[in-house]
Amino acid sequence: MLVSTVVLFFYTNALLKEEVEEGLYSTEARIVAAIRAGDNPYSLPPLVDFKKVPELQDEVLKDTMILDPFEGEIEPFKELTTFRNIRGENYQITVRSLSWDSEDILIAIVFSYCFIILLAFAILFYVNKAKSEVLWNPFFENLKQMKNFSLTSETPIQLVDSDISEFSDLNAEIVTLTNRVRSDYRNLKQFTEDVSHEMQTPLAIMQAKIENIINEKAISEGQFEQLTSIQKDIRRLTRLNRKLTLLSKIDNRQFVNLERVSISDLVKESIENFSGLSDARIAFSQPDPIVVDMDRHLAEILCNNLISNAIKHNLENGNIQILSSEGSLTISNAGAQSLKDPTKVFHRFYRETKGQKSTGLGLSIAKKICDLYGFEITYHFRDNCHVFTLNFNNS
Amino acid sequence: MKILIAEDEIALQQSIYTYLERDGHVCEVASDYREAACKVDLYDYDVVLLDINLITGSGLDVLKALKDENKRAGVIIISANNSLDDKLEGLDLGADDYITKPFHLAELNSRINAVLRRGKFGGDETLEFNEIRIDTRSRSVYVNDTFITLTKKEYDLLIFFITNKGRVLSKEIIAEHLWGDHSDLMDNFDFIYVHINNLRRKLTVEGAKYIRTAYGSGYKFIED
Questions:
Q1: Contact A320, A287 (CB under 8 A)
Q2: A231:B9 CB<8 A
Q3: Strand A89-98 with A48-52, pairing
Q4: Are A252 and A189 in contact (CB under 8 A)?
Q5: Which of A197, A206, A232 sits opposite B172 (nearest CB)?
Q6: pLDDT in tens, A326-362
């Protein structure tokens, strides 16, 4: 590109020079002819000038700078001075032609080159872009599908077909992979459900038999202690089971009944239920009552879980404060120190303390419910309090 | 009272049978759908305990047949499935109560008695134990015709005691009856102790001394 610019420049320059010189010679010839014919051609300085001179000299062709009286500036001229003997008289004929500026030519060439290049680039760019869009369209469509893909969805992933064999291969692999993952996930879920379900009956039998033993035989106080302790463990297993079942039901989106639920009323009910079970002081203030659309049963579980969590982890004589305002519910209880790993607080079976009473599922169920409805639940430790904030506005 | 226990798990069926027979109920058992449907069709029961998942069919179909024939039996559904939908379907079909496995026999017994009271006395629902008389409709308690004021928990506790009279009730069973799933909040059962003591005091003032301690940590409602 650069070489061609230079070559073009010199070529154009030479061409122009030749043309102008040719023009000068032809003008000179015309003047000679006019003088010879006896006409008196007009002198037109600075372009045409002739005068009689005593002797002939060699002709001169040169570049010169002359003040152009019309434009008022010094311009480059090409000048041809010849000496002729016409009808016995010696004439000096000077013809000049406005010359050109090499710089201008260079600029013009560079400019047009740039313009052509830019134009070519622009056209190529848009053509390529349009072409690529058509070409990659299936890819991006499929990418979107994959981003929206959910393990829990009932339908297999729907991919757009493409003529390009690489894309087709990719699609085939994705379909196989997602189908396998989905079926694995379904089996795992089914397994959890089945296990939970099948465990209920043996547990019921154990429970019933223990009750009959207690009531039928004369047993010792120590045996009674043992038996009630077994009953307690059966209860624990039962609760764990029910919570796991609940989690998988939420996963399966089996709660589809939406209704207007007053969270504030549920909180009040929940506090009422817990009174008599705990001597924790619960203060509930509600400048703005909250009403949301959700399944009533899940709303109850959500409120109960958060409040019972606050009661369980409250310090002795600590206060529990519940505040509903501006679409968010804040539940805080007194705590000695922040959790060691706050990010794990909503994980299944995460426990900071070895509390026997906790299944380690309450908060993860609360989180699941929030996820289901797009609510936001956050934990932080502030002013010696564990604070859980439920934001209902996002839904 | 005549009770049919339709439950395909024989061990559970027998345990329930043993527990209920001690109260003088006449119990019969059915171990699969066909037997249950057959017995329900042939005989009249006061209460039918119906497992939803009977081996060869659904307990809900037995319930439908029962209601189609306008039998007066009270029905308590036993299910391994703690699902609200199942519960609502069962109650919609005319079941009187719904209990989820695993359950305490004392709890089952108290539900059976509640169904029996409703079914037998119609509008006049009364529970009596010697000098104690309870009007379950107005939830008022009289000892020797003297009205005594009980809190809601004390009232529930008294009903639970009377329906399970003569049996040892551990604090866990009592806690679960009174608070359901919330009872797992309790680190200790001191709260139960407070409620029982209050009830015992109120009854004893009127001369009804029936609540006894059993095995150190359990309770028993018993006549001398």
A1: no
A2: no
A3: antiparallel
A4: yes
A5: A232
A6: 888 999 988 888 887 788 888 888 877 665 567 788 8
Overall average pLDDT of the B11-24 stretch: 91
Mutate to test the interface with A, among B5, B54, B79, B182 (most CBs of A within 10 A): B182
CB B136 within 8 A of CB B159: yes
Residues from B contacting A (CB-CB < 8 Å) are 9, 11-12, 15-16, 18-19, 22, 80-85, 100-106, 153, 167-168, 170-173, 176, 179, 181-187, 191, 195, 214-218
CB atoms within 10 A of CB B219: 24
- Cβ atoms of A385 and A334 closer than 8 Å: yes
Q: In chain B, at which residue ranges do the beta strands (DSSP E only) sit?
A: 2-6, 26-30, 47-51, 53-54, 57-58, 74-79, 97-100, 126-129, 132-135, 140-143, 146-148, 168-170, 211-214, 218-221
- The residue of chain B with its CA nearest to that of A214 is B168
Query: So what's the ipTM on this one?
Result: 0.85
Which residues from chain B sit within 8 angstroms of residue A219, using beta carbons?
215
Which stretches of chain A are assigned E, i.e. beta strand? Answer: 48-52, 60-68, 73-86, 89-98, 259-262, 281-285, 291-294, 319-325, 328-334, 376-382, 385-391
The one-letter amino acid at A195: V
Measured CA to CA, the distance from residue B190 to residue B208 in angstroms comes to 23
Residues of chain A with pLDDT under 50: none
pLDDT at B127: 84
CB–CB of B19 and A208 under 8 A?
Answer: yes
| Cβ within 8 Å, pair B102-A234 | yes
Instruction: Using DSSP bridges, classify how beta strands A281-285 and A89-98 pair: parallel, antiparallel or unpaired.
Output: unpaired
- H or E stretch covering A347: none
Q: What is the pLDDT of residue A394?
A: 60
Measured between beta carbons, which residues in chain A are less than 8 angstroms from residue B217?
Answer: 224-225, 228
B68-106 residue pLDDT tens: 888 888 899 998 876 667 788 888 888 899 998 889 999
> What percentage of chain A reaches a pLDDT higher than 90?
13
CA distance A69 to B202: 132
Beta-carbon contacts of residue B48 (< 8 Å; ≥ 6 apart): B3, B4, B6, B40, B62, B66, B73, B74, B75, B76
What does the pLDDT look like over A5-62, one tens digit per residue?
A: 888 888 888 888 888 888 888 888 888 888 878 777 677 766 777 777 888 788 888 8
> Which residues in chain B have Cβ-Cβ distances shorter than 8 Å to A215?
19, 22, 167-168
Q: Are strands B2-6 and B47-51 parallel, antiparallel or unpaired?
A: parallel
Would you say the pTM of this structure is higher than 0.80? no
Backbone angles phi, psi at A38, to 5 degrees: 90, -5
Cα(A230)–Cα(A186) distance, integer angstroms: 34
Please check whether residue A288 is in contact with residue A325, taking contact to mean a CB–CB distance below 8 angstroms. yes
Q: What is the CA radius of gyration of chain A?
A: 49
Judged by DSSP in three states, A177 sits in: helix
Return the SS3 of B45: coil
For B46, residues 6+ apart whose C-beta sits below 8 A from its C-beta are: B1, B2, B3, B73, B74, B116, B119, B120
A203 with B216: Cβ contact below 8 A: no
Number of A/B CB contacts below 8 angstroms equals 121
**Are the beta carbons of A200 and B101 separated by less than 8 Å?**
yes
| Distance, first Cα to last Cα, chain A | 61
pLDDT of the residue at B187: 62
Average pLDDT of chain B is 86
